[in-house]
Amino acid sequence: MAGRTAYKPPKFDPAHRVVVLRGKDSFLVREYTKRLSGLLEETHGDIEWFTFDGAATSAADVLDELRSFGLLQQHKLVIVEQADAFLANSAGSKGPSRTRRLLEEYVQQPVENATLLLKSETWKAGKLDKLIAAEGLMHKIELNEATDMPFAVRWCVGRTAKAHGATIEETAVTLLIKRIGMEFGRLDSELGKLASLVGPDGTITRQQVIEMTGVSREEQAWAIQEAILSGRTETALGTLRELQEVSRQPTELILWSLIDLLRKLHATSALRAQGVPESEICRQQRLFGSSRAPVLRMASRVDATTFSRMLRSILRDVHGIRSGYGRSERTLERMTIRIADTLSTLAA
Predict the structure, then answer these.
(1) From its phi and psi, is residue 311 left (phi > 0), alpha (psi between -120 and 50) or beta?
(2) How much is the pTM?
(3) Separation between Cα atoms, residue 192 and residue 195, nearest integer Å
């Protein structure tokens, strides 16, 4: 299976007559729309904006606006929101919709004084894609932490300087992304909050990210997983007690963490045995940052069958906890010690 290509931002050209932006990150869609508009203004001077709701407008309305002359012959940016609904068939009909056919015809002979921007969370592939690519740009906004961390880091560093008047350490950016995820609206909001804390021309540090942003479920889970993979049972037990007594993490979260670790180890070992490339394994199992190397190392030393037996045993213990047999704290301790000891012995 081919590895996933790292995400790259769109390269707009004022000569593009039709542009498609598709993806669920509404913040990036808005930012790219502003970027396209700015490029058109640099090229044509003032431009006119027209926005249509794709779920409630007709092809005739959009095409009429594209083909009519603008005020003072200005260039137009005609935007269709929810383009998937705009292009969709009516219920029960088959084949390309009338709107799609009309748009296919338009794209082959677009007007010179207008740019059509289609925006959608989803997109149904078809003949229209190739026609648009010939006259403009098809751009998919889809990011993955396994392959796109470098882009996200660069984006956050640039956004902090340009929009918020501050700088941010790379280690701080990496931690922020791990805590927030690839949600650029939330990242921008957190960057703004942190920039306000350090003041104009200040520098955001990793410690400030720790203090000002909430710890993600994944980071809480990784604390016990990392301790178990360290090969030191006393470290694993100490981390467990810290999660229970200091951080007050719920039993269910810790149980999920233990099960998640064994599932990752089992899947990673099985995929390696099948000859799946390491980059694809990391993408599928969401192995990135400090979790990547120890999981890959352990999975390379132990076969998937062994991890499967361990997982079944732990699931029986989990069933006992959920059924009310014994004290959950003591059972968690025994589970943690058993997993840590077993992995340490197997990896020796």
Answers:
(1) alpha
(2) 0.63
(3) 5
| Cβ-based neighbour number of residue 287 at 10 Å | 22
7 occurs within a structural domain: no
Q: Could you give the CA distance from residue 247 to residue 71 in angstroms, rounded to a whole number?
A: 62
Helix 251-273 with 304-322: angle, nearest 10 deg: 160
- Tokens at 46, concatenated: 């003032």
Domains contained in the chain, number:
3
Rounded to whole angstroms, the Cα distance separating 176 from 207 reads 11
> pLDDT (tens digit, 9 = 90+) per residue, 23-45?
999 999 999 999 999 999 999 99
Whether residues 268 and 300 fall in one domain: yes
Antiparallel, parallel or unpaired: β 75-81 and 167-168: unpaired
Token digits of residue 92: 């029960």
Q: How far apart are CA 106 and CA 125, in angstroms?
A: 17
Which two structure tokens, joined as six digits, stand for 149? 């961390």
Tokens 């939330």 locate to 186
Residue at a domain's end among 107, 123, 141: 141
Q: Please give the angle made by the CA atoms of 112, 116 and 117, to the nearest 5 degrees.
A: 150
Instruction: Answer with the one of 153, 182, 212 that is the final residue of a domain.
Output: 212
Q: Specify the pLDDT at position 23.
A: 94
For residues 79 and 187, what is the distance between their CA atoms, to the nearest angstrom? 26
Contact 39, 131 (CB under 8 A): no
**Encoded tokens for 32:** 């790219």
The predicted-structure confidence for 99-151, as pLDDT tens digits, reads as follows: 999 999 999 999 999 999 999 999 998 899 999 999 899 999 999 888 899 99
CA distance 96 to 107: 15
Place of tokens 């880091």: 153
Say if residues 194 and 156 touch (Cβ distance below 8 Å).
Answer: no
3-class secondary-structure state, position 22: strand
Q: Which two tokens stand for residue 299?
A: 């999975």
